[in-house]
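User: As part of a screening pipeline, I want to sanity-check one entry by hand. Below is the sequence and the SMILES for zinc ion. Please return the complex as C-alpha cells so I can compare it with the automated output.
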Amino acid sequence: MLVDYHVHTHFCGHARGSIEDLVLSAIQKGFSHLGIADHMPLTYTDDRALSMSPEELPFYVEQVLEMKEKYAGEISIRLGIEADYEPHTIDKIEKMIDSHPFDYVLGSVHFVDGWIFDDPRQMDKYERINLEEFYLRYYRILKEMAETGLYDILSHPDLPKKFGYRPNRDFGDAYREVLGSALENDMCYELNTSGLRWPASEIYPENSFIGIASELGIPVTLGSDAHCPEDIGSGFERAESLLREYGYCKIATFEKRRMNLVSLDS
Ligand SMILES: [Zn+2]
Ligand SMILES: [Zn+2]
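Assistant: Here is the complex for your manual check:
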C-alpha cells in the first residue's frame, strides 16, 4: 500500500510541477493513492511565495478533481489541502475549508507569534531565542489547533527542528498533551519525510512521539511534503520500517473527511 498524502503543486509559488506531472510521477513510482495537499491561502501574510491567493483556490480544486477523474483507473487521487492554524483568523480558515469538497485537511503550524519559523529567509531568528520556550509555545499552539476540530491530520508535528535547532530536552509531556487532543478530535498524525531533506536529517516527528502515539492508538498517515514531482515518496522505505518498528500495520486514508484505515501490506 503506497500512499503519499502531502504533495504540493506550482500553485503555491515555491513548488515545481503541474498537478498532472505529479500524478504521472506517482503512477510511475507505483503509488496506489496520491493526496494532493497544497498550501491553503495564508491568512496571516500576502506573501505569494508562500501560498496561492484566495482567487486561485477554486482553480486548484477544479484541476485536482479533473485529474482525479482522468486517472481514476490508475490511481486513487484525493483532494487535500494543507491548512495553517492561526488563532486570530480562525473564522476565515474555517470558511475556506468549508467552501470546498476536500477529502482531508492537513493541519499545520508554521507561524508562531508573528514568526514564520520554517521559512529559510527567517531562519536567523533561531540564534536569538530561547529554544525550549519556543518549542513549548509551538506545542501549545499545535494542541490548540487539534482542539478546534477543523483538521484531520497533525502535519509534521515537530517542525521546529527543521533547521537543526533543538533544545536538549525531552518533550514527552507536550507530545501527550497534543496527542490527547488529537485523539479526542479523531485526528491522525503524519509521518513526514521532508525532514530528511533539511538539516534536521530526520523524519517528522521524532521517534519518541511515534512511540507515544502508537501507545495511545493514534493512527498515522504518510507524506513526503514533495515540492516537485521527483520527491514524491522520497524516504518512504525508512518511514515504513519505522512504522513497523512501532507496531503500526495500518495507514490512514481519507475520503470526504472520513478516515479509513488500510493495511500496509494490502
Ligand atoms: Zn511549501
Ligand atoms: Zn507544512
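Points to compare against the pipeline: The chain has a mean pLDDT of 96. The longest helix spans residues 131-147.
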